[in-house]
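[Target chain]
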Amino acid sequence: MAGKIRARDIEEVKSRVNIADVIGEYVALRPASVGSLKGLCPFHDEKSPSFNVKPMQGFYHCFGCGEGGDVYKFLQQMDSLSFYEAVEKLAARVGFALTYEEGGPSIDQGQRSRVLEANSAAAAYFQSQLMTDGAIPGREFLKGRGFDKAASELFGIGYAPQGWNNLVDHLVAKGFTLDELVTAGLATKSEKGAYDKFRGRLIWPIRDSTSQVIGFGARKLYEDDQGPKYLNTSDTLVYHKSQVLYGIDLAKKDISKTQQVVVVEGYTDVMACYLAGVTTAVATCGTAFGDDHIRIINRMLSAEKDSPAQVIFTFDPDAAGQKAAMRAFADSEKFSAQTFVAVGPDGLDPCDLRTEKGDEAVLLMIENKKPLFEFAIKQKISKFDLGTIEGRVGAARAAAPVVAAIRDSAMRPAYTRELAGWVNLDTNEVASLVDSAGKTVRKEAVAAIRVDVSPPAPDSEGDLHATPNEFSRPNLADPITRFERQVLEVLVQVPSGFTPEQLVRIVRDGFSSAAHNAILEAIGTSLSSQNSSDWLRVIAESTPEALHPLLREIAAQALPAHDLDGLNRYGQGVINRALINALAHTKADLLAALRRVDSVANPDESAAIQRQLVELEAERRKLQV
């Protein structure tokens, strides 16, 4: 197939990339043990970090879901890339010119890249049009909301001229085909070819966390425009609206640093917050805030219990805003953070607030945030007349399910007391309503459960849990098997902590677990690469593919050491104990052989065995020093 990238180029690109830097753009990583980083897994929902990255070895592994691999696999999974697209993306990152074995990239390998190139060219074109005479309505719109030329340039705002094919003609002249522009969502097919999707609109480029333009948001400016107020790029190879947060490119660094995210309603709100000093603001792009957005945010939060992260929502005071607030409350437990709501004075959104009252007002709005639980409860009771008994009881009954939905066992009774105070009722009476509401919720949840009794599908990825019996998962509750795992962890992670002779003796002694023993033998056959940076890769090449997930676990396991000296001491201790075990097994074999020898008939053989026993004992004593 044309376009195959030269194998040595693939390895060269990987060697030039720090996997921690790449993954760090998607996941908030912090030091774990020597040579290891950890964070919340981007591939499954979790609140305690089980996702480990080993920069020196160039791989990642999650102890929660078992996902793992190298930097190419990570990008393939996170960005829905093919293998070659992942290589191309990293090559561009480090400025490496790839060599294609048969002349150039194939169409399917380069399609995603062409979409990104078209988006980048379109963004530049739109931005160049903002200062034209035709864009005066767009500039007036921005000026009226307090955004000057510098702000427009910072966010890359542009203008799509009126007319049918201004952008299409511009990009075709640059070498893009009509099919490529349609695939990128920049043009719509017609009987005569294609016409611009965005016409006569103010344009916001939407960038991913790596600052690549993946789509556009367009606001209408003219009364005769029959389209929606905001028109967004349709889903493409690179743009999936349920997985996009506008402003993430500018906010990601400060989100990780401050452990705070501010979720606003739209593009101008993101701009207003950022310019006012709230540099952690993001917004969805034409869709409701959902699970995919939560996962994106959770990746950037560290889940530190002693200093919890904060997710702050801002909502409009209208009915849609109230509905969005209650939807956020329903999802609040999915965040690896405390959740809050910030409401501007007079119901002003961040953009209008900044325009009317300045940057300080936006900062004060965020500073005066309220816990989301409190906000949701007060929204319920605000619909009742608390001046009457009927109103107070009705308010308590309406808010009780909200309190019952709080999973934190310490927070629930605290908010029960707060609710009682807000509606001026006895705490026990309100607690009874909350308890009753909780039982109803649990009954509904049980009724909704559907038990799947079908047998599990075979694991097409060859995960260890679905391997043949010969490689069944080792039982770490058994102390012997658990120690075998410790030995493998040291052999894989601390190759400088043992000599070839020591490894040969451990391999010769063998392990009780078939899976552990297969990896041990692979380590033994890889001995010539012991001092190589490719130590783990060479081991993997000799390890049965079904055991690769287990090998990653072993390589990713944090070892009990705080620095290199401690790591070496720990490794030497484990190796010494393994050697002592091997000596004990050898001693048992020699003693059995000695019992079988007739010392009278074969005095020389008996003496030779006894000398070996003495040498073994001397070696054992050295190891115990």
Remarks:
- The domain at 107-239 is CATH 3.90.980.10 (DNA primase DNAg catalytic core, N-terminal domain).
- The longest strand covers residues 213-220.
- Residues 564-596 form the longest helix (33 residues).
- The CA atoms of residues 21 and 55 lie 9 Å apart.
